[in-house]
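Record 1 of the preview.
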Amino acid sequence: MAKFIAIPAPSTVAATIGEVLIAAEGIITTDTLTDSTTAIYYGNKTVTLTYNETFLFNTSVRDAINAALTANPGGEKVKVQLPAGVTISGVTIA
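->
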């Protein structure tokens, strides 16, 4: 059965309804790009998350994604527990 990580996002982001689902199997790595963006490298695509908080290049969002990927026991869908005060404001796939 496929396993997914669920990233909470407002319904105004990319027509999501509360969360963005990403298949965990396809994720190669994650990286903090700027103070308010984190990338998830997925095959030949990049999912870039933009959020409202700036952390002076803090890696807490990346770390939250990695924690969801390695959660044990995981389950079919594991929710990413974003740091307090962080709200996803944009999701792009390129």
